[in-house]
């Protein structure tokens, strides 16, 4: 460390003397000037640690130089070293801030030794003061930057310093706040006198509370909460200068803390009433802490189970012990959340159900603590067990129910069926649960059923009679009820009413037949009888044998017509008497009693129709219709076609065909040549199972009958 010295003296001889003395000191470096003006010029370009100046110099003396240095460079150390020892010079030097005053003359060695000592001590003092000033500058700069309030009060409570954050918080400007009475400016009126009194007591004792919470009044009138640290301020001599107060605005923290406390109190009340306990378990120290609601929920006071896991494990139901132990051990080893329900023994001796939810405290230094909730779920569990037993009974009821039961979703996808469903449809339960309810319904009824199905989700319940198709294409008529369950699933019940429907159809058909047969008996037969009587009366009026022969032939024709009516009645009354059956079409055609015109049959050998047992009469009548009424028929063929509704069986010949105006009338009872019963009979037999027949041939190119068979009414036996 080198101390740089600026020596100012107009006596150049003294320059030589000073130089010789200072050269002996390794830590001293000296620069000489002969005038004060030269010294000021040099100070503008170089830095010096100490100035040593003579007093009496031309133009500008040492005192004038001192004044100028203090004006320009503040506390730069200054020693006045002069031969003038007048008292007024000394007083003037001291008044203008000289650091030391030394008089020349006398013992040179002692004089320069004293000068060098004062230079060093002055340098060290100035370095300490500069460091202190720099530290104070940095400290205040730091205070101005932090988001904390900082202010200095003197012994009278006057603000000597305040940082920017305090001003921004209070809303005051620096000029408005600085050097003002802090208590008048910033303390709420109701606390002002008390705070002044306490501050005066602290000043008189030179001791104040190091930490306090205080309220500060803002310019707007709002009151905020501050958390303050107080430090007494003293000068270098230890004299008391007041207090430095530093702290933070804790208004929001305090509000949050109060809210948290309020929530805690409300939560404890809530848990006590809802059967819940908040707990914390310290794994390392085996300490279990619970809130006060433990006594209401499990009967034990929190301190009774405080000493950890072993006490708690002792009250677990024996059947649940191992599961609880394994779950807890796994959760601890893997630091994972858990949620488990089990039984514990209440202090009153009965077992209750509880649910424990736990997770590890996320704070890094608290990973050995589990916090969570214990809930009394006894009522819910007992209700669940009762419901389970009820569901088991209900399931047993469904399994034993004699009618089809299905459960399906809003899209119709089946998730359950009972054994009766398997028996009724022919499908296994595994097959049914891969199907939609619409797969089981007769295709012709699906559109209407879908419409009804949509209303189910509005009304919650629907009832409809539906026709089902079994695995073997068998028809099942059911009375269906569907109920919308919670969760969106649908419970369906299907009662087999096939026998009732068939009987109703039979009764209806019998009634219709009776009416028709009565009509034939009463009307057609009586008409023919009347005609015969008329011709019998006319027979006596004719003597010509040829004429009498013609009348006899007419009467025989009438008798033949009566015979046909009787035969038709006999056959017609057999339609619908017996239940429909599956019948092989190719086999029926092969067994028609043909004349000399064979039938070219291209029907698949395994095609079967579900039809009235008199289906063989259909193909027999079609054959005789072609032979007897087709004209010069030489070819008859039968084959199968496929359309969107099912299949078509086509019967055609190469005869004359049927005129367009007669196509819609040929299936009416009594229309056509001879009896007019054949085609009507065919349509009636087919209609018993929903099969229809139309004539689509082109007149002059032969007759063409199309038998339309719905999907449910045919099958290929090789696929069964």
UniProtKB/TrEMBL annotation:
Residue span, PAS domain: 135-206, 282-335, 390-460
CDD domains to which the protein is assigned, alphabetical: HATPase, PAS
Record-annotated Histidine kinase domain positions: 520-713
Modified residues (4-aspartylphosphate): 54
Taxonomic classification: Archaea, Methanobacteriati, Methanobacteriota, Stenosarchaea group, Methanomicrobia
Keyword Metal-binding annotated: no
Ranges for domain Response regulatory: 4-119
Example of a GO MF term: protein histidine kinase activity
Protein name: histidine kinase
SMART domains attached to this UniProt entry: HATPase_c, PAC, PAS, REC
Statement: the UniProt record of this protein carries the keyword DNA damage: no
One Pfam family linked to the record: PAS_9
Keyword terms, alphabetized: Kinase, Phosphoprotein, Transferase
GO biological process per UniProt: phosphorelay signal transduction system; regulation of DNA-templated transcription
Limits of the PAC domain: 210-262, 338-389
EC number: 2.7.13.3
Species for this entry: Methanospirillum hungatei JF-1 (strain ATCC 27890 / DSM 864 / NBRC 100397 / JF-1)
